[in-house]
Amino acid sequence: MTEIHPTVQILPHSGFSDRQKAMVDMKITSDPPLLDQYGELLCRPGESRTIQCDDLQNVVTIGECELPLIDLSGLMRSNEEKRACVGAIVRASSEWGFFQVVNHGISPNLLGEMRREQVKVFETPFEKKSTCGVLNDSYRWGAPRATSPKQFSWSEAFHIPLAKVSEEACYGEFSSLREVMEEFAAEMSKLAQFLAGVLVENLAHPKEVFEEICNESTCFLRLNHYPPCPISPEIFGLVPHTDSDFLTILYQDKVGGLQLMKDSIWVTVKPNQDALIINIGDLFQAWSNNLYKSVEHKVMANRKVERYSTAYFLCPSYDSLIGSCKEPSIYREFTFGEYRKQVQEDVKKTGHKVGLPTGFLL
């Protein structure tokens, strides 16, 4: 939780809103020290944080929406019900880039255990989280590369390769997390490959097409925590982006904050604790020749309530060649490593992830 201790220091910057001036004029103690990092960005010369016209797309939404909800048990029933379920998955992947699933085969008990263990890790004091090397020494917080407040993410996370999940040394004193995380990773992997197979078969390709290039040596789990943000509701918990994988599975809590771009407008996703969220990544958009859409999304911070989520990323090896599934192809062939390098260069140059850059179009 964030504690605020006022001091008499005044840092005059005429471009700040009254609330932001007040935050800069206070000494902040937070875990992690997000306000310190954000305050440093605010104090950069020339930074004006009044909302300009070009910022409106980042803060204006049209209210809550419910993502398409798909009951995966339909895939195990009659041919007619199976076709209807596949059709719903394909439509959602094409029109939304997002959908949510129930009866997905992952037990509520396992999901609950995973969340409880995740909370234990994030409740560890910042000094320990950032130095103890837990979870493959993958702890990250804020946005160290941000050059302006609009590039800042009010969150902390662990980003763990699946290949490390079974290693005892990865957990340190958090030994109770290991067994839960191993089972959770295995179940998420199975579900990701299953859903990818459904989408691949719809394009008349064998469902095993990703099994060789997407395995525990290439995929990731990300544990996210979004602490309460005392500044203002336009602060990002996670900056706008698209995912750089084939598909992502998200397990989130009831707090909400996820927003996605639909028909050029930001919409807020109504949380559903009984469902898992699936979204298409950049690689599946390229492979499907733009049939499946990788959609920009973000998380907005909450002033009073913390939020937790866990994401599974279905990724290939860096030397895997990504090509479109049919001709004429929209995208040239490229390796995942080549794509990731381009993304990093884009972030360095523009401050944000571009998605599938025009350099990959034919």
Automatic annotation (TrEMBL):
<keyword id="KW-0560">Oxidoreductase</keyword>
<dbReference type="Pfam" id="PF03171">
    <property type="entry name" value="2OG-FeII_Oxy"/>
</dbReference>
<dbReference type="InterPro" id="IPR026992">
    <property type="entry name" value="DIOX_N"/>
</dbReference>
<dbReference type="Pfam" id="PF14226">
    <property type="entry name" value="DIOX_N"/>
</dbReference>
<dbReference type="InterPro" id="IPR050231">
    <property type="entry name" value="Iron_ascorbate_oxido_reductase"/>
</dbReference>
<keyword id="KW-0408">Iron</keyword>
<dbReference type="GO" id="GO:0045543">
    <property type="term" value="F:gibberellin 2-beta-dioxygenase activity"/>
</dbReference>
<dbReference type="InterPro" id="IPR044861">
    <property type="entry name" value="IPNS-like_FE2OG_OXY"/>
</dbReference>
<dbReference type="GO" id="GO:0046872">
    <property type="term" value="F:metal ion binding"/>
</dbReference>
<dbReference type="GO" id="GO:0009685">
    <property type="term" value="P:gibberellin metabolic process"/>
</dbReference>
<comment type="similarity">
    <text>Belongs to the iron/ascorbate-dependent oxidoreductase family. GA2OX subfamily.</text>
</comment>
<feature type="domain" description="Fe2OG dioxygenase">
    <location>
        <begin position="215"/>
        <end position="316"/>
    </location>
</feature>
<keyword id="KW-0223">Dioxygenase</keyword>
<protein>
    <recommendedName>
        <fullName>gibberellin 2beta-dioxygenase</fullName>
        <ecNumber>1.14.11.13</ecNumber>
    </recommendedName>
</protein>
<dbReference type="InterPro" id="IPR027443">
    <property type="entry name" value="IPNS-like_sf"/>
</dbReference>
<keyword id="KW-0479">Metal-binding</keyword>
<dbReference type="InterPro" id="IPR005123">
    <property type="entry name" value="Oxoglu/Fe-dep_dioxygenase_dom"/>
</dbReference>
